[in-house]
Specification:
The protein is mainly α and 76 residues long. It has two domains: 38 residues; 32 residues. Helix content is 71%, strand content 0%. It is built from four helices and no strands. The relative contact order is 0.05.
């Protein structure tokens, strides 16, 4: 779930973001910068541990590919 946030920044900083990151990508860029500073470290560690579980990752990939194959067979 996403929430809208209004922030105020210097005009030069904003223009630098638009030139460097590109319009429409600034929110994602800022979220990636802020996320490690505000999320619970235990949650981050749990996600890292899950990603290292090769069996779970293989199962998840198999499920995702099967789901995509099912969808691709449906008429548009």
């Amino acid at each position: 779930m996403q929430k809208k946030l209004t922030i105020t920044i210097d005009a030069e900083v904003y223009e630098g973001l638009r030139k460097t990151i590109g319009p429409g990508r600034i929110s994602h860029f800022i979220e990636d910068l802020v996320r490690p500073h505000v999320l619970d470290k235990e949650l981050e560690a749990a996600y890292s541990q899950m990603a290292r579980d090769e069996g779970r990752e293989a199962e998840a990939l198999e499920w995702a590919e099967a789901t995509l194959q099912d969808v691709s067979d449906e008429p548009r």
